[in-house]
Design goal:
Strand content: 5-15%
Helix content: 55-70%
Distance between the termini: 50 Å
Radius of gyration: 20 Å
CATH topology of the largest domain: Peroxidase, domain 1
Shape: elongated
CATH class of the largest domain: Mainly Alpha
CATH architecture of the largest domain: Orthogonal Bundle
Amino acid sequence: MRDIRVAKRYADAIYSAAAEAGVLDNVIEDVISLLDLIRDSDGFNAFLHDLLIAPETKQSILQELLGDHLDPLLLNSLFLLVLKHRERSTEDILSAFLQLVDEQAGRLVADVTSAIELTDKQQDALVEKLNGYSGKQVRLNMQIDSSIKGGFIAKLEDTVFDGSVATQLQRLKKQLARG
């Protein structure tokens, strides 16, 4: 989809309904789990994007796969997306939902790329540093990219903290070339 306005509308509706029903915390946990499933499972992602599967069949499969694991409000939201032929936009909508949750909580999201997975202790230390820098609560959005060789790159709003080995090697190479 990549139409942010539509994703935000659906995310707003899910947020409002969950807050009104008093199940916001459950829905947030389920959204995080569902996003992980979409990002980690090529099969599930292909299922969501398959145009040949009838909406009723998709709803039935979603019920079978996720019915016991998701809050009914979120599951019904997925059913609505299927009926409206917006299920291919599920990842964008769920991401917009989490962004709305962070905005409502006054939290910033830092996109962090590291060469290897950071330990919980390392993530906690990074969150603490970024909290101190921004003066706000920060949540990490972690990604792994071995091409940075080591260290990490953190993007917080318009600021980039680049502590990657690849960047340090480039700087060293430029310094040596200048003499």
